[in-house]
Amino acid sequence: MLKNAAAIGADIGRFSFDIAVVNSGGNVISRKSVPLEPVYTKDFLITRLLKAIMDMRLSVAALGVNPICVGFSVKGFIDHQAGIVIGPDHGINGWLNVPLARIVSRVTGLPTYVGNDANMMTIAEHRFGVARNYKNVVFIGLRTTGIGGGIIIDGKLYRGVNNAGGEIGQMIINYKDGLSDKGIRGSFEHFACAAALVRRYAEISRISYTKEKKRPTAKDIFELSYKNQKSAVKAVKENAEIVGIGLANLITIFAPEIVVIGGGMAEARDSYIEMIKESAVKNSLENCRTEVRIERAQLGSNASLLGSAYYSMMRLAGNGI
User: Which of 59, 75, 242, 261 is the most exposed place for a label (fewest CB within 10 A)?
Assistant: First the structure.
């Protein structure tokens, strides 16, 4: 590892991106969030990214810090060896088969690497978070519209053929119902992500939403459940049961040492995590779950930044990850 080195990590979202300078010990030296337009193109995004990298380098130079590489955390499928964003475009015009690493490296002069966002979060939790010192890890990110994931086997990130492994959210848990926007029927994310919680709450409470009466967020529903609002309590319990079933499948298949629950929904109270644990335990094989811990992620919104920065330093040093 490059001792005392620092790297730039960037996490690209749909409506904003975060950028930070992180040292090899996982300390954030400087961090910034950059908003994006509601509708924009690939070229617009890359221009903003390049400017943010330049600004960040100038900012930390005053502190005597000189980042040696750049790492990107990006949604979707990635050719991590070539640093190409394969897609899907996630509503960004032209965001398909983008040689992001080559473009950024050519302009900045810094070695640049690109990874899937859920994989970067997995790497961060494994190196700096709750999963450090474990060799066999499953990470699950419970997010607004989907579920991401990452798998570490014997200390190495599992990618599978075409770097396509770890798509935990597309695991099928109900083959007869729930056609997702990805064309998969009965997927885990269709029934368990934050949008699914909101949808189920609307069904239970029999509320019709209009422009005047906006749908609540998953956070709103959790807050209502803490106040013992019946529909919210029922929706949250059902969601925790389904999340636990998904984890039970993964526990029985991989028998990991630890399962890490991340993403926005993991910020709910301990009672939600405990319900997930109960469901996972009762729906998995005893021999597979004997040693497993199920824990909330520790790094929160910094996970993708820490993971992408650390990943880039490891790649630059010639270390596999």
Answer: 59
